[in-house]
Amino acid sequence: MSELDSASVRDTISRYGRFIDDRDWAALASILAETIEFDFTSLWGGEPETVPGTELVARWRDMSERLDATQHLITGVLPEISGDTATVAASLMAVHRRMNATGGPLWTVGGTYRFGLRRAADRWVIDALSLRVAWVDGNQAVISGA
Predict the structure, then answer these.
(1) Domains in the chain, number
(2) Structure pTM?
């Protein structure tokens, strides 16, 4: 594993959180693969799925339009790189804010992200993403729009 690859993978993960918080949907799409193995079942239930990257961006955009702000704190980014693929474990705390939500303005999720990435020409793209929730706090209606 080269230090350059390791730094590039870490940078991609940092950009993921930053682009969501900045609502920079085009930039977010640029770091996602064409399809993504997506598993947020520990938060929402259901089944893991394979989703086009553009659809995932549209989902996050739709959810964010109901919010005043988000802040994704992603730390402890630990990449394991093998050739043109990488897996990454990282700690997450995501705060979601909507001032007019009945029941309070904040909903916070803490847990662990697991990313899969692959090399695409001169950059790394995310082709797998899962969340394992450790805890939640606050008002889930912030997200649901209730």
Answers:
(1) 1
(2) 0.94
